[in-house]
Amino acid sequence: MEVTLLAYTPAPLKVIYTAARTCYSARPPAEIWADEVPEEKMEDLVNRLIQQGHHSVLEHVSFTLGIAGISRSCLAQLTRHRVGIAFSVQSQRYVRLDRPTYVTPPSLGLDGERRTRFEKAMAEAWQVYNELVSAGVAPEDARFVLPNATTCNLVLTVNIRELIHICELRLCPRAQWEIHELFLKVAAEVVKVAPFLKRHLVPKCLRLGYCDEPESCGIMPHWRELQAQGRLPNPVSRLQDNG
Ligand SMILES: Cc1cc2nc3c(=O)[nH]c(=O)nc-3n(C[C@H](O)[C@H](O)[C@H](O)COP(=O)(O)OP(=O)(O)OC[C@H]3O[C@@H](n4cnc5c(N)ncnc54)[C@H](O)[C@@H]3O)c2cc1C
User: Fold this and answer.
1) Which of 75, 82, 174 to mutate to test the pocket of ligand 1 (most atoms within 8 A of CB)?
2) What residues are labeled active site?
3) What mean pLDDT, rounded, does the chain reach?
4) Whole-angstrom Cα distance, residue 216 to residue 231?
5) In 72-206, where do the E strands start and end?
C-alpha cells in the first residue's frame, strides 16, 4: 500500500493553540494568532488540552491523504469510522478492473499450497469478471464476483480528534495487520509535518496506562493485573457500590 500526505491545515499547532486560547481570553482570535509564541509553549498547552479532554479544539485541523492499494476488506474496516472523516473511493461501478490487483495476506506465506490455491482463486475471479464484462454485463454488476482482496484507492480527510481516536484503536496490535499498517503509515506521514502529534498517535493502552482488551499483547499490563495489585479501581464494582 502507498500513503501520501496530499494537503493539511497550515500551521496546525498554531491553529489549535489559537482556538484554545480564544476560549480563555478576552482578546479576539486574530490578535492571539498574531502573537509570537514559542513552539514549546504552544505544544505544552496542546498536550494539556489533550490530556484534560478539551478535544473539540483538535477539530480545526485536518489532514488529506492519498491511499493506494488497500484491500476492500481494509476499506470496510476504515469506513466504519464515521465522525470527522471523509472518503472519496475509486468506484467499482465506473472503473473497469480488468487486471487482477489484490492484496495477499502475509499469513498465506510466499509459496506453498495455500498460496497457490489463493492465487488460483484470484485468477478465476478475474477471468469470470472479464468474461461477464465482455458479454455486456456492466462493471457495476460484474464486480459482484470480485473478492474482498481486491485493491482500491481513496482520498481520506480526517481531523486530529478523530485521527487520535482511530490510532488508539487501529495501532493496537489486536487490530488486523492491514489497517494497522495503514495507520502506521498515516501517522508517519502526519508526524512529518506535525511532530507535536507523535506522542498522541499511539495505541490506547499508552494513554490509559493499561490494556483494556480481553488479553494484553505485553505493551502494557492488563487492567485485571493492576487491579489484583490494588493499583486500579474496578469501575464495575464502583457502579455497583453506588447502586
Ligand atoms: C479490534 C476491532 C475489532 C472490531 N470488530 C468488529 C466486529 O466484529 N463487528 C463490527 O461490526 N465492528 C467491529 N469493529 C468496528 C467497531 O465496532 C467500530 O465500528 C469502529 O471501530 C468505528 O469506531 P467508532 O464507533 O469509534 O466510530 P468513529 O466514527 O470513529 O466515532 C468516533 C467516536 O464518536 C462517537 N460516535 C460516533 N458515532 C456515534 C453515534 N452514532 N452515537 C454516539 N456516539 C457516536 C463515539 O464516541 C466514537 O467512539 C471492530 C473494531 C476494532 C478496532
Assistant:
1) 82
2) 170
3) 93
4) 17
5) 85-89, 151-159
